[in-house]
Design goal:
about 40% helix; single chain; 3 helices; mainly alpha
């Protein structure tokens, strides 16, 4: 395979791969450095607006009134309150006083 047929095949292969060539470096750099629209700012704005709306609704939503205070005159007694009192608690109600000679009361 030499001669005109080989040249024809080379020309066909070159034509088939002509689009495979990389673009010029200047064009690539120009595309990389041109300003692009800021999609991130628009995408971040929607959740921020939703969060602000939710916070505003939470703060401004009417809250139910607090429950009324218990009526005076009703005394509640703890049925197990005696368990909180330590044995010998009457001794610990006051600080012991020692005389100067060292005798305890």
């Amino acid at each position: 395979m030499t001669g005109p047929e080989e040249e024809r095949i080379r020309a066909l292969v070159a034509e088939a791969h002509r689009a495979d060539a990389p673009p010029p470096f200047d064009e690539v750099m120009r595309r990389a450095l041109r300003p692009r629209p800021r999609r991130f700012a628009r995408l971040a704005l929607a959740p921020l607006a939703a969060a602000a709306l939710a916070a505003g609704l939470f703060l401004l939503w009417p809250r139910p009134a607090p429950p009324p205070a218990p009526a005076p005159g009703i005394a509640w007694s703890d049925p197990l309150g005696f368990l909180l009192e330590p044995p010998g608690g009457d001794l610990m109600k006051a600080v012991p006083h020692f005389d100067t000679d060292g005798a305890s009361p």
